[in-house]
Amino acid sequence: MKEFVVAAVMLYGPYLWCFFRRKSPGRYGLRLMWSRAMAVEVLYWTVGTLIPLTVVALHWPGLSLPRSVPLGSVCMFALAGVTAACIEEVFFRGWLQSILRPLCPAVARVPLVALLFAITHLFFHPEYIYLATFFPGLVMGILRERYDTVTPAILYHGLGNLWAIWFFPL
Description:
Layout: H1 2-21, H2 36-58, H3 71-99, H4 106-124, H5 134-147, H6 151-167
Helix pairs in contact: 1-3, 2-5, 2-6, 3-4, 3-6, 4-5, 5-6
């Protein structure tokens, strides 16, 4: 139940913030936009980060990866991963990174939000390996800054979550 409440606050909170402050959600990157350049860059970041991570995962001690996952579980995990990507990116890269924009430059804002993103993963998964989400958090923050929308961050995050079904070493 607590996960549902947290997810609802993270997803709807930024939109309520915009509504009550009479601000456009677009001002916080909370609009879906797409371009060919964005797609190419997301693909570049995905390939450039997931291929090396796959090599590391395949050599992770004590595990046999990739996992063999039943189709029903793949569908459930995929849906959960894409949903989590949307919720987390709306909150962290959309709302929080935008709130920090007048307070600090992107060179500080992106790592700060990535660090908060990584730390929050410990609330639901208290294994320290989840702090490694800091690094994809940096990529998602860079994508958010570059395109002024959460769309590429959501796509990158969702693809990373799909990868984790077979290769995350836990």
